[in-house]
Design a protein that fits this description.
By secondary structure, the chain is an alpha/beta fold. The chain is built from 16 helices and 17 strands. 43% of the residues lie in helices and 13% in strands. Strand 1 (68-70) and strand 2 form a beta hairpin. Bound molecules: pyridoxal-5'-phosphate (PLP). Pyridoxal-5'-phosphate is lined by residues 127, 190-192, 216, 260, 265, 293, 295, 323, 325, 330, 335.
Length: 482
């Protein structure tokens, strides 16, 4: 232990006894626990501005009393077997509990998971990347580089839209791979932070926001937290029903549209070019910004993915969100907002309320990795793997159909999951699967309005686990689908 805060009583006792008493009080109060290391005599002597021998005498006193132990060259530790310790600790706990403050909680988020999906033996959560595929050794080199040659000026307070060399790399990548050219880039700690900031900047209480009927609840929670009322747009097998959206615009004053156009979450459908053009027209005509959540752009298999709506955005109304959670791993907490210049400054300035500096070291390492080409190598490798896993899952489900199971699905052009009509009570299947150690979500988890729940679809993620695991898990699931 390095430091222990103790206060010496102003008594007549000899100094070493005052110190011993103060340490004993710290042990009794639970500031240091049994078996925990105490400060060295030198540290404590410096801290208290006393002679080292005085501290040694204090420790010897505590050893004699049974409070402290010492082993050769290992310094001093709190005794493991303090006879009165547990009763003292309990007493302290009781006092603390008796005085518990009751908090006035104004806002709460109801949506947290009770048991994380990765705790299950088979994890079919739809949005999980396979973190085992990430090249940690390679990436470590770039973290080291960032530490070896840090940009001291950038590590200080100041610029808050992100680390410039990272923004440059991302800008080049977005231009080259996603055709996004004239947008300003802001770096955030993942898409969720982007959604929170945008909701706060663009909405006020009672504003109507249009979302897909089946969609991404964490985004909805951020919008609602800003006071928005969500209005669901009907979906067909070709994605959202633009006619229904137009109707909603005429009935209500829609202030914002939130969409996942490439691989619709959760149905995986890609929004056609024709529908996109209609949406641009409506957005322009009625002045409705579109938040485009392009959360898994690279994972597209049979052809190149359609460029984002932000790429051909005629009036600059598309606010583009991209996340590193799938292309690296969720714990990296990196996300991008690409937006028209006229809005960018408002976002950066609002972001300063939450956080007044970006994680420069991390962005520096990722920028170096991107510049080196490692980022795109990793993307190519994981996309190939995910494609194989999609094929593996499709083959197994097709074999189930051959065996007479009544399930239907369309092979998605990309993404990380299949949306499967099981023609049975989907929620019951998800619940029974959990009891067998299999995590998957049923349709119910994605509906804005519970009355729309037909309760017959399940979402099966294929990216996050090996083909072997996919096979084993699906075979265990098969009797539940029959
Ligand atoms: C629709 C959607 N958007 C965004 C994200 C990524 O969010 P974040 O960047 O906050 O991890 C996910 C991840 O599951 C998602 O499914």
């Amino acid at each position: 232990m390095k430091t222990l805060n103790i206060s010496l009583e102003n008594t007549q006792l000899a100094l070493y006894l005052k110190i011993a008493e103060a340490i004993r009080d710290a042990i009794k109060d639970g500031a240091v626990m049994p078996a925990e290391k105490l400060p060295s005599t030198r540290t404590l002597a410096e801290q208290l501005s006393v002679n080292r021998h005085t501290v040694m005498a204090a420790y010897n006193e505590l050893i004699a009393q049974g409070w402290v132990e010492t082993k050769q060259r290992q310094g001093y530790t709190v005794s493991l077997t303090l006879p009165i310790y547990s009763s003292l600790a309990n007493k302290a706990k009781q006092i603390r509990q008796g005085n518990k403050h009751s908090w006035r909680v104004i806002k709460q988020n109801q949506g947290s998971l009770t048991r994380p999906a990765h705790d299950y033996s088979f994890n079919f959560a739809g949005g999980n990347p396979d973190i085992d595929l990430f090249p940690f050794n390679e990436f470590r080199g770039f973290i080291n580089e960032a530490l070896n040659r840090p940009s001291i000026k950038e590590l200080n307070y100041g610029e808050n839209s992100g680390f410039k060399p990272f923004i440059k790399e991302v800008g080049t990548y977005l231009r080259r791979v996603r055709s996004i050219i004239d947008k300003e880039i802001i770096v955030v700690n993942g898409t969720q932070e982007a959604l929170y900031i945008l909701s706060q900047v663009l909405l006020k209480s009672g504003d109507k926001v249009a979302v897909e009927n089946l969609g991404y609840r964490p985004a909805w929670a951020a919008l609602k937290n800003a006071g928005a009322e969500l209005v669901g747009i009907k979906q067909t097998e070709e994605g959202i029903d633009v006619g229904d959206f137009e109707l909603l615009i005429k009935q209500e004053k829609i202030r914002l549209l939130y969409l996942t156009p490439l691989h619709q979450y959760p149905t995986t459908i890609t929004l056609s070019v024709a529908k996109r053009v209609q949406l641009y027209r409506l957005a322009q005509q009625y002045n409705i910004p579109i938040i485009e959540d392009d959360y898994d752009h690279e994972f597209h298999y049979s052809s190149q993915p359609l460029p984002p709506m932000a790429a051909n955005d005629p009036s600059g109304l598309v606010i583009y969100l991209s996340s590193f959670s799938k292309i690296m791993f969720p714990g990296i907490r990196l996300g991008i907002i690409a937006v028209d210049k006229s809005l960018a400054q408002h976002i950066v300035s609002y972001r300063t309320l939450i956080n007044h500096k970006a994680n420069v070291l991390l962005q520096d390492a990722v920028a170096r990795w991107m510049k080196d080409g490692g980022f795109e190598r990793h993307l190519r490798k994981s996309t190939r793997q995910y494609q194989k896993r999609r094929e593996c899952m499709v083959d197994i489900l097709n074999s189930f159909v051959d065996d007479g199971l009544n399930i239907q699905f369309t092979i998605p052009k990309g993404g990380m999951a299949l949306w499967v009509n099981v023609n049975k009570n989907a929620q019951e299947i998800a619940d029974s699967a959990k009891s067998k150690g299999i995590f998957l979500l049923a349709e119910n988890a994605f509906h804005l309005t519970p009355k729309n729940n037909e309760n017959k679809f399940i979402r099966l993620g294929f990216a996050g686990q090996s083909e072997e695991k996919i096979k084993q898990g699906l075979l265990m699931l098969k009797p539940l689908l029959a």
